Amino acid sequence: MLTFTPSGIYCPPGGFYIDPWKPVEKAVITHAHSDHARWGSNHYLCHPDTAPLLHLRLGPVDVQSLDWGEQLDINGVRVSLHPAGHIIGSSQVRVEHKGEVWVVSGDYKVVPDGISGPFEPVSCHHFITESTFGLPIYQWEDQEIIYQQIRQWVLDNQAAGYSSVLLAYSLGKAQRVISCLAPLQQPIYAHGAIANVQETLIQAGWNLTPVARVPVEPNRNQLKGSIVVAPPSADGSSWLKKFGPVKVAVCSGWMQVRGNARRRNVDAGFVLSDHADWNGLKTAVKATGASAVYVTHGFQAAFSRYLTEQGIEAQEIQTDYGTEEQE
Amino acid sequence: MRLFAELVQQLGSSTKTNDKLAALLRYFETAPEADTIWVIALFTGRRPKRTVSSTYLREWCIEQTGLPAWLFEESYHTVGDLAETIALLLPPPTNESSHSLQAYLEALQALSDQEVEAKKTFVLQAWDELNREERFVFNKLITGGFRIGVSQQLLVQALAKLVQLEQSQVAYLISGQWDPRQTSLQQLLDSSFAATDFSKPYPFYLCYPIEGVLAELGNPADWQAEWKWDGIRGQLIKRNGELFVWSRGEELITEKFPEYQGLLEALPDGLVLDGEILPFMEGKPMPFALLQTRIGRKNITKKQLEAAPIHFFAYDLLEWEGTDWRDQPLEQRRSKLEALVAQVQHPKLLLSPMVIFNTWEELAELRSRSREFVAEGIMLKKKDSVYQVGRKRGDWWKWKTDPMTIDAVLIYAQKGHGRRSNLYTDYTFAVRKEDKLLAFTKAYSGLTDKELLEVDAFVKRNALEKFGPVRTVPAELVFEIAFEGIAASSRHKSGVALRFPRILRWRKDKTVQDINTLEDLQQLLQQFGNDKAD
Ligand SMILES: [Zn+2]
Ligand SMILES: [Zn+2]
Question: Does A323 reach chain B within 8 Å, measured CB to CB?
């Protein structure tokens, strides 16, 4: 019922696409990351929590929203959304037609992070899964342990007279890092990209910690030893100079491997991911009970071969997702 | 072990030398002395003998995790380091506890004459009591190679601070032959103890790559120029009636070069020479590839001795009649050296000749002809310089020749080792052979992050075929490949092997029509290579 076309995942009977990477007439969107929610389509369908983020990203586009578990009939195809636990509003898309059920995972993680909603396993015949961290070397520690490490790192930096810069992707990771830092009861300075997302979400009714905007002309030493959250692209920018001597950390699942951390040339790497780890991917696939699995962006070759050897028919699918580093 | 694991983690992640120094000092101040002596040994390359093979480590990890072997290999390929791969794959420890670094190292040594089963029991038990960071260093102790961003110089600096000695003295004390199992920290860093070790070399003084323009160096008459040979930098020592040869890597390699034994009779006692170990025939040094055939072999055949007759090209004199001459100006050391070589008159001991020049322009012209002399470039040494320790700016400079280059097209790509694990960063390049393409080298580094992402996207979008982890791509992207040397090779389809190949730049201005041909490579080989590399 779903096919893989040059424009993206397409549903012929329903006449709509899911997370298309080319402009189409009707697009169902799993979540607001830019590789999944692309510019140029005429109509978008997504979860109500994704809608304001879509507007923030894409401007005034036509968005229809659908709550988790609510059903919508599109040309005889029954469409519903289910929490994916990846970022705020992130959803799996379930489509049903003539008794056949497909689920498109989008990006997901199975362990709740306290913000993005708990992942819900959805039974289906065909499951399209991501595989960003589809190798057994990726096994995450508990969020609370990492959070403690981050807070300790910040306090150590302050004791030594440094500001702490945490590099985190502006939508998703940044909200988690900010909530991790909130118990320190200090102003959290955010780069514009992150402040925009945070304010949009607070306006939409989310109970999130507000961030401090950076003063245009700070007094000398005013920002020394402060806490800063910035997108990875801000690393090495002159914007960071305002904060005096800094220590920089990357918060990303890629930090699991030393070589990656070294290559980023930062002072610390915290393994914090919005994607399922190896065990998470395996659990999620098994829980769907799907007899056919399609593996997209990530380690698709390894993960699909592994599933096949475990008796689950799986194949790898080339997509345009995951081209940017917004893990 | 926890302290040591933390140290390794800090050294690996800190980007500033001062932070590394602070981490080392903190470690030395808090760790037990018995562990400290091992850390000095490990960080100066005195790795204990390997008692467990990595094949077994692999096997046991696969067994413990229940993963298919191919998935282990795939993981290893992504991580790029066996010790780390295993540390990441193993299930969490069930019996957490940690012994001292010394305890693990000595237990590992004690395994050397044990059965495989005993080794396995020990390794599995250690895995089950160590956390992820500790497991990584534990595995590293077995597989070796603690290359974690600590230079010998930094270690020396930390120790010098710790024991309040001059850095040059510490560097000398920790060099040479000593066994961490039989040496206490006090013995190691006590100069009266060191005096009894006759083999002890001096720490090498290394040239710094030249920066800026030559004219800034001032008057050419203040400088001595020499060819920079492409051999093994070494020290030749005769003390107490014995001859010792050390490599720059602080390896005692006396046995590897039996041709030097003739010098034992000829040289005076209490002598240390600094120079280059180099094969030499018919008045000319021979390419490095030939020397390579001699390193790493236990037994040297007569044929090898004849094919690569090793000589010692003396640069400098560091000790004379048992007295340390390193504080004398270079000019004086050199004239003593010249007198010595002339007097000894041994065919294996040659004086590395000075390059005579009057102006910087003349020197630049000579440097551009380095390859004709089978040299890598030029070394410039201040005539009044003392012999320092390590790589220092100011008095000694090296000025290498520009690398050879070839324009080639990308034909295969593979995901990187230990780099951003999900990116295609390892490339194979081809030159043209008549109307076909011929793969001739791999190259990894040299692109900017942005370019890497661009090439990665190209590979992901255009991959034609796959062979395991390798992707074939359309021959479209042209790169300029630089390399330091070229040798004939029967193991390569192209018939040539390159030394230190790397990507110099992406030639977006060129198409596959513009790349170099196999004949171009063969011409370089004729000009600069040798014809019996392997
Ligand atoms: Zn995403
Ligand atoms: Zn994605």
Answer: yes
